[in-house]
Design a protein that fits this description.
Blueprint: H1 3-20, E1 26-28, E2 44-53, H2 63-78, E3 85-91, H3 94-97, H4 99-103, E4 107-110, H5 124-131, E5 150-153, E6 157-164, E7 180-186, E8 195-201, H6 212-233, E9 240-245, H7 252-264, H8 276-282, H9 289-301, E10 304-309, E11 318-325, E12 339-344, H10 347-357
Parallel strand pairs: 2-3, 8-9
Antiparallel strand pairs: 1-4, 2-12, 3-5, 4-5, 6-7, 7-8, 9-10, 11-12
Helix pairs in contact: 6-7
């Protein structure tokens, strides 16, 4: 009964991959008419958003919602309220991949495409894990899609680093996409050093279609590889913002694995309480009541996270937050995730605020 449906699913993914998986590293389109000057407000605003740009037959009728996302971002740009940097997940379809151009983002970094291979070497346990894979759940049949990761930026991208997760670090239907890690190193006004933006989308839990135990193992291996990759490509003395769809949720084992591994990797700013959405709520940095409700909902789901540090390993100061893609006044939300924005103060302002709070005379 289910094999014809799975065959249709795989065929649809393969056809989309053939049509739309060609991805470059960085492209700059300064000729775009809707690209405007960047407001000099002394802040760095960053949004993370899983746009649900999944192909048919996984989802249907997403074109209108994806167009609405692009149009809203373009409207925000016209009034100077666009996020300076956007981390997109599940930008698989042509409509999702056109969001950047339609919203006026001049600099775009793409995550691993469908053909990028992982260089990670597995151990005996990893090989045993692969041998137990289920082809009828998308395991072991090859990548049909790229990672779905993009970083959109108003600021120049100096360098891009990307890593694809190996077959021993994926589970179930997630294996059809070449999930991994994308890092864009940006030249940002107000920051003396490049700011490294890290975007990722980790393995789903029950939606992957295999056992929770199998998805947990894939998730934990992904976190292992991601922490190693980030530590080797982002100097400890460089500002960094990590965000994306972490798929931690209410699973205590996933939370323990995620935060313990980053702590061991020397990144202590990545803790639950230092998540930027939680910090914004604690500081009442989201003024609009409806947006504050949406931010609390997104934070409570514990899937979409952002963490930020300065060059001294101290958390960047959160000065404001908003949710441009949350509950809609009419109709359903534009995705099954909310897209929220955090405004960070540059390090000089962060240090000034810290000294003032400590009671120092300036």
């Amino acid at each position: 009964m289910y094999r014809p449906i799975r065959a249709l699913l795989f065929a649809g993914l393969a056809s989309l991959a053939a049509a739309g998986s060609t991805q470059g590293g960085i492209h700059a389109a300064a000729q775009r008419e809707n690209a405007q000057s960047i407001p000099a407000d002394g802040r760095l605003s960053v949004m993370t958003y899983n746009v649900k740009g999944l192909p048919w037959p996984v989802t249907m009728g997403r074109e209108e919602a994806l167009d609405a996302i692009a149009n809203r971002l373009a409207m925000l740009r016209k009034t100077g309220r666009q996020p300076h940097v956007i981390l997109l997940q599940e930008a698989f379809t042509p409509e999702a991949m056109r969001i950047a151009a339609r919203a006026g983002y001049v600099h775009v970094a793409q995550g691993p495409d469908a053909i990028q291979l992982s260089r990670a070497a597995g151990n005996q346990a990893d090989r045993s894990y692969i041998a137990q894979g289920r082809w009828d759940r998308g395991e072991g049949i090859g990548k049909q899609l790229g990672s779905g990761l993009q970083i959109l930026s108003d600021y120049p991208i100096a360098r891009v680093d990307r890593m694809a997760f190996p077959d021993f670090a994926c589970a179930g239907f997630d294996c059809l996409a070449n999930k991994g890690v994308l890092i864009a190193h940006l030249q940002v006004p107000g920051f003396d050093l490049p700011v490294s933006i890290v975007n990722t989308h980790l393995n789903a839990r029950t939606a992957a279609g295999v056992s929770v135990e199998r998805t947990y193992r894939a998730f934990s291996r992904q976190v292992d590889l991601m922490t190693q990759f980030v530590a080797s490509h982002v100097p400890a003395t460089q500002p960094m913002i990590l965000g994306g769809d972490m798929n931690i949720g209410k699973d205590a084992r996933r939370a323990d694995a995620f935060f313990a591994r980053f702590a061991r990797a020397g990144m202590p700013f990545i803790t639950p309480n230092l998540g930027s959405a939680r910090r914004a709520l604690a500081q009442s940095a989201c003024a609009d009541p409806a947006m504050r409700h949406d931010l609390a909902y997104s934070s409570g789901r514990a899937k979409d996270w952002m963490f930020a540090r300065d060059a001294r390993q101290q958390p960047l100061q959160v000065v404001a937050a908003r949710v441009p893609f949350g509950t809609e006044p009419t109709g359903a939300p534009l995705s099954d995730h909310f897209g929220y924005v955090i405004d960070y103060a540059p390090p000089s302002r962060t240090h000034l605020a810290q000294r003032t709070e400590a009671g120092e005379t300036l």
